[in-house]
Design brief:
heterodimer; A: 396 residues; alpha/beta; two-stranded parallel ribbon; 15 helices; 41% helix; disordered N terminus; B: 586 residues; mainly alpha; globular
Amino acid sequence: MKNLRMLFFGMVGLAVILLVAACGADATATPTAKPAAVAPAPTPTPSAFEQLVAEARASDHVVRMAMEGVPRELVERYEKIWEDKFGFPLILENEPGHTKREVPVKVAEAGAAGRGVVDYLISDIGNLPVTYDANLMRKPNWDALNEGFPILADLRANMPSWDNSLGEPLTDYCISENVAGWSFAYNTNNLTDEEVAGLAGASYDILTTPEWKDRVVWDARALGLYMFPFAPGWDQARLEDFAERLGANGLKLFPGGSNGVIQALIQGEGDIGVASVSVASRNIAQGAPIGVAFPEFVSTSWGVSCLPKFGVNNEAMADLMVAMYPIDMFYGSQDLGGSFRIFSEEADKFPMAGLFAAAGLTSKNLITARSPDEVALTGGYRAAAIAAMQKGIESQ
Amino acid sequence: MAQIETTARMESTRTPMWSKLTRPQIFFPVLAIALLSFFVLLPLVVMVLASLRPIGTSVFEAGPFTLDGYSRAYDNLDMIKVLKNTLIFSTGAVGFGLPLAFMFAYFTERTDMPLRNAMYSLMFIPMSIPVFATALGWVLLLGPRAGTLNQYLRILFGLDTNQGPFNIFSMEGLIFVQALGLVPSMWLFLVSVLRNMDPSLEEAGGVSGASKFTVLRKVTLPLMRPGIGAVLIFFFIVSVESLELALAIGPTAGIQVLSTTIFYAINPEATGGIDYAIPAAFGMIGLGMGIIGIAFYMYLIRQSSKYAVVTGKGFRPKIVRLGKWRWVAIGLIFLYMTIKVVIPMTILVLTSFLKFYMPPVPQVWDSMMWTLANYEDLLSYRFFGRYFLNTIYVALGAATLTMILVSFFSWVVVRFPGKLTKMVNVLAFMPLAIPGVISSLAFFLMFIGTPFYGILPILVAAFVARYIAFGTRVMHSAQLQIHKELGEAAMVSGVGSLRTFWYIDLRLLIPAFMNGWLWVLTHAAKDFSVGLILASASSMMVGNVIFGLFSGGDFPSSAAMMTVLVAFNLSIVLAGRRWITKAVRG
C-alpha cells in the first residue's frame, strides 16, 4: 500500500515537472508571449558562404578524390589545414588511378551512367575535355566561394579558357590549381658543381651530348616531351629527332611519371631527368638527394580544380575543396614541397616561383597546350615521342 | 465446356514438363549450367559484344555493331610485336620453369632426398609470395646501374663499367622472374602426375640393366609426356595472363605484352577518350590463344589414356637412392628457395626500413636514412585497415564461394551423369582457356557504367570465375572417391538430394575442400591483377595500394606493405597446412 502511494506521488511529481518544463519551453518558443520591447534582435541571415560551410559541417565530412603518389604527411596536412579553418574535420579518400590522366576517364565512364567516382576533380586542361565536353561537370557555388576566398576571381581569370559543347566557358566550372612545371631534376650526389651550374636556362639538347651519356632517365609515357612542339622553334619533327637522339644516348625509361623518375634518380639508376617541380620539391623537403633546375623552357600541365557533375559524398564539402585545395592547402603545404603559380599577386607564397625567376624565366617560358585544337595534338605528340625514344634506345 | 477442356489439356501438358524440370537429374544440372553461365559465359559474351561497338558506346547502349574497333585497336599498335613478345615471354618462362619443377618433383616423389616430406609445406612458401614482391626485389637487385647485386658484382670482379653485368629490365629478366614464380605450382601438378604413375615399367627398365638416367629419359619422361604437356600448356596460359610483373618491368625494358596492352587500353589517357571496343578486341586475341592452348591440352589428355599409367592395383614406386647426390638435390631446392624467396625478400625488408631506397653499397652507406616510419605510417594510416579488410573479404569470399560452387558442380557431374552434366563439365573447364586478365576485363566490361562497378562482390565474382576450373578438378577427383551408395542410402531414408550433398558429400570432402580453399585463398590474396582492373576507391585492396606506391616511386612504403602482406599470407598458409595435416591424420 505504501509502495503504491509512493508510486502515485512519484507519478504526479513527474507529471508536474514535465508540465512545467513544457510550459517553459512553450514560453521561450513563442515570442508573442513576451512584450514587444524585449524581443531579441532578428538573427542576421547567414551569408552564402556561411550556409555552404554549415551544410558541409552537417555532412559526414568525406571527400573522395584521386591522390596517387601523394604522401600521407601531405594528406594529413591538407586535413589539418581544413580543420583549422572550419573547425570540423575533412576525411580524404583516395580513388585509384593517375590523378590527371586516368581519373577524368573514370569520371566520364561512370558519369555516362549517372554515377560518380570522385567528389572533387583535379586535372589539367589537356585531360579535361573527356568530361567537360560530355557535360559531366558541375558549376561550383561561386557566389559562396567568392565570399570566402577573395583571390578566387583572379584564379579564374588567369586560366586559359574555352567553351564546352554547350558553349559555356571553362572558367564557369574550374579555377587554376597550379602550373605543374616539369623541370630538370638531378641526383645531388652524382653531379659536379659545374654540371649543376650549367643547367639553369640550358637547352634540352645538352642531354643528348656525350657528357650525359647513360645518365638520363625519363618517364616511359614521355612526360613533358609531348608539350615540346608548342615551344618556339620546335615542331613534331624536331621533337622526334630530339627524342631519338635522347634514346640513343643511353636513356632509361621508368613508369610512374615524375615519381618514377625521382625514385630512379634517388637510387642512382640515372643522374638527371625531367620531373614535376612539385614532386621533386616534395622529395627535397623530405631530405632526398635531389636538386631542381629550370631549363630553357618549362613544359607545364595547367592544373585545374573542378567538380564532377555526379559526386559520391556531400556536395558542399566538394564545393569548399574547389577553393581550399588550390589556395589554403596549396599555400599551407609548401614546406612539404609543392608546385607553384606565377601570378604576381601571390608569387611570395611559392618558393619554387623564386627559383624559376632566378633562372631568368618568365611566364613566356612556360609552354602548354592552350586551346582545344592544341590539346587534340598532344596525344599524337606523346605517341611520336615514345616511339622515337624507343627507336633511339633500340639503335644502341 | 470447351474452355475447361482446353485448360485441362494445357495443364496436363504443363505439369509433366514442370515435374520433369524439378527432377533432381534435370534441376541440379540446369542450376549448375545457369551459375556457370553467369561466371563464365556471360562475361565473354559481353566482351565479344563490346568489341563490336562503335567508339564511345557501351555494351548495353542502343546502336549499331561494327568491326571498326578491331581496326582501331590493331592499327595504332604493332600487334605483331606485342604477340611476339607475349609468345617469347610465356614460352621462355614455361621452358625455364618446367625443367626445374620436374627436377624438384622427381626428387620429391622418386628419390631419397632429405626433407622430401617437408616439401609440401616448404613449396607453399614461394607459392604464397606475390610475383610482384619477387619482381620488386629483383628490380632493386639487378637494376643495370644501381642494382645492389650488380654493384657488388662490379666491385668483386673489378668491372670497369657503371652498367650491368645483369639487366632485369629485359626479356630475360621478365622470363627469369616469371619462371621463378611458376615453379611451385608446376611442382604441385607434376608431383601428382608422378605419384599416380605406375612405376612397374620403370622397374622393368631398371631390371633390364638400364641406368637410372636412361630409365628417366627413356621410360619415365615418355610416360609423363601427356601430363607434362598439360602442365606446359596450362602454365603457358598462366604466363599470358601475368600482368603485375609485366607492369613492373615491361615499361623500362620497352616490352609490351598482351596483358599490359589490355591494361593500358582499359586505363586510357584522358586525351585518348573512351573506347571499350579496343580492350575488348585485344581480349579476343587472348581468348583465342587460350582456346588454342586448351585444344592442345584436351588432345594431350585424350592421348594420356593410351599410356595407361594409372592402374587399378595399388602400387608403391621404388625409391631411387641418390647416395651423396641426395645432398646436392636438397641443395638445389634450397638454392631455388634462396633465389625466389630469401634474396628478394631480404632486399625488400631492408628497403622497408629506409626513408629513400638507395642500394646498400659502401659508397652510399653513410647517406642511407634508416627509419621505422614506413611501418608506423602503415599502422597509423586509417585506410590500411580498410584495404586489408577488403583483401581479406575478397580472398575469403572468393575461396569459400569458389569451393562451395565447385563442390556442387562436381557433385552434379558425378551424381547425375548425362548430356546436361557434360555441358556442366565443359563450362567448368572453360576458364582454363581464359587468361585471368581477360576474364577480369570481361567483368569490367560487364559492370562498367552500372551501380555494381567497383564493388567488392564483383571482385569476388571475378576470382570465382578465374578459379572455377582449378577447383572443379580438385573436387571432381575427390568426389569420385565417394561411393554412390552413401547418397543412395540417404535418399532411401527420405533425405533430399541437396541435404544429401550438404550433410554427406560435402562433409566427407572436407580435406579436399580445405586444400582447394587454401589454394584459392592464397592465390587471391597475392593477386594484384583483378584489383588493378576492377577495384574502385571503396574496394581497393592491399595490392592496389602496393602497386600505387610502387608506381609513385615510393619503394620503401611499397616494400613495407609488401612485407606485411607476405607475412600475412605465410601465416595463413602455414596455419592452414598445419590444420589440414592434423584433420587428415585425425
